[in-house]
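so the lab meeting is tmrw and i was supposed to have these ready like two days ago... anyway. pasting both below. for each one the top line is the aa sequence and the line under it is the structure tokens. i havent really looked at them closely yet so no promises
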Amino acid sequence: MKTAIWWIRRDLRLTGNQALQAAHKNGDFVVPVYIIDSNLIESRYVGDKRLKFLFSGLSKLDEELRTIGSRLILRSGSPVKSLTRLVRECDAAGIFAEADHSPYARSRDRRITQTLPLNLVGSSAVHPPGSVLKSDGTPYTVFTPFSKAWKSLPLLGDSTFQPSPEQFARLPEISSEPFPIPPPVSQIHPFVPGENEAQRRLKQFLDGGSDAPIFSYDTGRNMLAYDGTSQLSPYLRFGMLSPRQAVLSAQRAIRSTQAGTQSKGAETWLNELIWRDFYIHILYHFPHVRVENFRNQNIRWQNDSSQFDAWCAGKTGYPIVDAAMRQLSESGWVHNRARMIAASFLTKDLLIDWRWGEHWFMQHLIDGDPAANNGGWQWIAGTGTDAAPYFRIFNPVSQSKKIDPSGVYIRRWLPELVDVPGEFIHSPWLMPPDQQKLAGCRIGIDYPTPIVDHRWARERALDLYSKSRRKSE
């Protein structure tokens, strides 16, 4: 009778799990284990909101396993030491885990395979790194050709495999550490953890026939006053939802409609999922992007710490930027468009190093992912592989008018602006003094004066980036 260990990392689900399926195939008994890796828990990038979601998700997974006569074995500390001990305890013939592609994960797994029977199965990406390459065997560094090559690859159907109760009969003999108590964080916009909630959200995003949210995603994702996105990113981050299932769902939605406005929404969502794969591939092939610019190495950041503090606190004087930053700090999630506006303001208007912002986001985002967060920040900063043109600088006022025309989003996250008239909600510093008094919002007292003039800051950024490009050539 053989025992197989299912080592759970970023795949907190039972359905459509290739690593679990491999463990099932190769063992008469399956031992599910999660190791709280001290190297990750103590990282400067860790955030309480993400930890709470993870720890609560582990409890949910344990509940699901118990319904089939199993339970989640929890260990903490060094993965190699924890797995070595567990292999001895249950006389395991093999360890099966989903491949993770971050620099740390790859280094960790290489060390473990030197002494333990670790088998990496599947991938946290839909098409794993190395499978989408140019004809000369080199990796893509521009999204559009990458996406075309990605779409040309066959996509196997998502597994509907579910583990059988008979394979967990001996688990009570194996000890487990107590589940950690999640850190206390705000519950303003909580994401309920777990595979069941991920499936419910996916169904909600897809259901409704021609009125399903996925079909209006192309425009709805940018309107901040209502939920026009799938809000599945935290579940994809921890593998509570299979990325392959998400892609197959998008493809089915595209096939169910005629080409045009309706299918464009589903196609846009599919492209967002492909962007997720793209950044995983970039980090795999170019691990230095974790700490360095991919291009434009000569940018001379200003890095004013007082301005950075104002940005972090949501007190820049630009409502759309401040609302995004308050939403991030209080809820742990932000619309992607709002993320881009806030990131553009930091890197272009304030000329603060994107790494400062990337770090802050990782400390607060529930869906904070090393590859996607890094890729998004380098894109907006104009330093990445497939970067936005250096002259693309978001205007916080015109963007605000476009994506939050009535100021609903702004008023939700900036209560000091609740009574500001609509004509001034995007630029409250233009309010006359008597109007400020009526609105109970005195600029410079109740709400800050803009910390920088956008028009002047834009010209400064264009000049600096232009000089940087010439030095790089």
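ok protien two:
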Amino acid sequence: MYQANLSYKVLTKYLTEVSEASLINFELENQCYVLTAKGREFLEAYREYSRDNRHLEKRLNEINGKKKILEELCSSE
């Protein structure tokens, strides 16, 4: 909670959401949360999505830059 700079209220909200989605489970014997197989699958899919999204954003910025150049070349001065 402290390392993530989250309030207790926000932390409990997030823990409830990921628990209900079966991404984590609480282990009574160790008194801690553990990632489930579904949680690991989610993280892998999110990493892939995030990587692809960064790539697409970079490419879109390049395309928009080229579009701007073309628009400037076509504008009458």
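from a quick look at the 2nd one: The helical segments are 8-20, 37-74. Residues 37-72 form one domain. will dig more after coffe
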